[in-house]
Specification:
Structural class: alpha/beta
Strand order of the largest sheet: 3-2-4-1-5
Number of helices: 2
Helix content: 10-25%
Low-confidence stretches: none
Length: 126
Amino acid sequence: MIRAIRGAITVERNEAEEIVDATETLLKEMIRANDVTASDVSFVLISVTEDITAAFPAQALRRIEGWTYVPVMCMREIPVPNSLPRCIRVMMTVETTKKQEEISHIYLRDAVTLRPDLSLTKKPEM
C-alpha cells in the first residue's frame, strides 16, 4: 500500500547551509522512525514557506546514502495566515505494509501542521 509520511521543521535563519542541514535532519528522522529505504519511496515533495529563499532544500536528499535517484519536487507554499515562519515541510509517499496509525509523522523545532481548515495544530509532545 502507498502511504504518506509527513514531517515539518523550522529554521532560525534564512541561510543556505542551515536550511539544507535542517531538511537533512528531518528526512533522516522520517526515514529512521518509519524504517524506510530508498526502494520503498515513490516520491518526495518538499515545500517551503515564502520567507525561505536562500537554498534549495532538496539538496539534502542527495546527501543521504542510496537516495540519489529518489524522485523529488521542491516548491514554495502559498502563504497561509498564521502559518509558522521559515518552515520546511516534507511529504514522502512510500510503499509499506504498515497501517496508517503506525506511521510516524515527524515535527521538529516547534513546527506545526495545518488542518484542512488552515487552523494551526501544535506538534505532538515527544
